[in-house]
Specification:
Elements (H helix, E strand, L loop, with lengths): L1 H20 L6 H18 L5 E5 L7 E4 L3 E4 L4 E6 L3 H19 L4 E2 H7 L1 H4 L2 H15 L8 E2 L5 E4 L2 E3 L5 E3 L7 E2 L8 E4 L5 E4 L2 H9 L2 H4 L4 E4 L6 H14 L3 E4 L4 H12 L8 H4 L5 E4 L2 H6 L8 E2 L2 H11 L8 H13 L1 E2 L12 H13 L4
């Protein structure tokens, strides 16, 4: 307990020193952090437990839906829920605010992983730091990249695309046999060059690899394929958004015909509750559902042994999805979800291999693209 108090005192002294050295050239982010710190320091000086007003990033009631953007955070939803009288929590928040302040002040960047290893004993887990960074970003109402904090990417991209990274490195994504990790600094990407006709967002890494193995990006059309390897990280979402804004080409989603796949597609298209405060830079409202559609299963006569029964959890998730505000403006999506509920079956994209080994890349997707089989 005494050590934690010492840590808080040390951080407080360092922050006061930093705040006094900035002068008149502080950026908006620095000013916002200073205001937060002034409140905290004022409370500590009076020996009171500081309280920060944070938006609850897990509550649907704190979001609103806009058809042209997706899920947005309401402007009046602040709750006094973070009591910094908890010593460890105080140390965590002060430490992260200090690190962000220094990054912005010196115009340098760090990944969340770098920040965690700056003091792993204090943060205990990477998740603790990740949540605090996102809470601070939400509290200040600025994108995380404005805090000069980068996240390690888990996504991959390939296809007819080349660009320059922020450090001037030229990235070529056109090799049919290799993939390129999605940049950890998407906002710094410039000089995007591509003759792609569309972007295909792929839910799973296994399907992504199948497309690569079959040279999908070059055999059918020049295109770009990208995967967030399941639930997408922020960088994968930023990259899809940047490609859409820069190239002005269609964006399609290829996901499993199950509630989980539909939800992942919705995250790309409409955003997530936890990141609703950054929706304008993350969502792709025009994304189209290429497949796998529940109606495709019967139409293509997919063998029964390749299908999976819906579980009770699946049904609950699907019913929950049907109630989300953005689904009501997608009647064709609603019909597909109703088909799934009625048939009580789901299917993974890999089930198409039960029809023929290369059915996905040589029949299914080419026919979809030629005849407009998306919704």
């Amino acid at each position: 307990m005494t050590e934690q108090f010492c840590e808080v005192g040390k951080l407080r002294a360092e922050l006061l020193q930093n705040l006094g050295a900035v002068g008149e050239t502080v950026t908006n982010v620095l000013t916002l952090i200073e205001k937060v710190m002034q409140k905290i320091i004022h409370s500590l000086a009076k020996k009171e437990a500081p309280v920060l007003e944070l938006n609850t990033r897990s509550s649907w009631s704190n979001t609103r839906f806009d058809k042209s953007v997706g899920l947005l955070m309401r402007s009046v939803c602040c709750l006094q829920l973070l009591n910094l009288g908890i010593f460890l929590l105080t140390a965590l928040f002060l430490k992260v605010l200090e690190m962000i302040y220094k990054l912005v002040q010196t115009d340098s960047y760090a990944t969340k992983r770098d920040m965690y290893y700056n003091d792993p004993q204090l943060f205990v887990t990477q998740r603790n730091l990740d949540l605090i960074v996102d809470d601070i970003s939400c509290m200040l109402r600025v994108p995380r990249r404005s805090l000069h904090v980068l996240a390690t990417s888990k996504g991959f991209i390939s296809g007819d695309l080349c660009y320059l990274e922020a450090d001037g490195t030229r990235v070529e994504c056109s090799s049919s046999s290799t993939t390129v990790p999605v940049s950890s600094n998407v906002s710094g990407i410039t000089n995007i060059v591509s003759s792609a006709k569309f972007v295909l967002v792929v839910e799973k890494d296994a399907t992504f690899q199948r497309l690569l193995d079959d040279e999908f990006c070059t055999r059918l059309h020049p295109c770009i394929i990208i995967t967030g390897k399941g639930v997408p990280d922020v960088n994968s979402r930023l990259m899809v958004r940047k490609l859409w804004e820069t190239l002005h080409i269609p964006v399609f989603a290829l996901v499993d015909a199950d509630p989980h796949g539909i939800e992942i597609m919705c995250i790309y298209k409409y955003g997530s509750v936890s990141m609703a405060f950054e929706a304008p830079s993350l969502t792709i409202p025009c994304i189209l559902w290429m497949g796998l559609l529940p109606s495709d299963i019967e139409r293509l006569e997919v063998p029964q042994d390749a299908l999976i029964p819906l579980t009770k959890n699946d049904e609950s998730k699907l019913i929950g999805l049907r109630k989300r505000p953005y689904i009501s403006c997608q009647p064709t999506w609603e019909r597909e979800m109703d088909i799934m509920l009625k048939c009580k079956q789901k299917a993974e994209i890999q089930c198409l291999a039960s029809i023929a080994p290369h059915f996905l890349t040589r029949v299914y997707l080419p026919n979809k693209l030629h005849y407009g089989g998306w919704i």
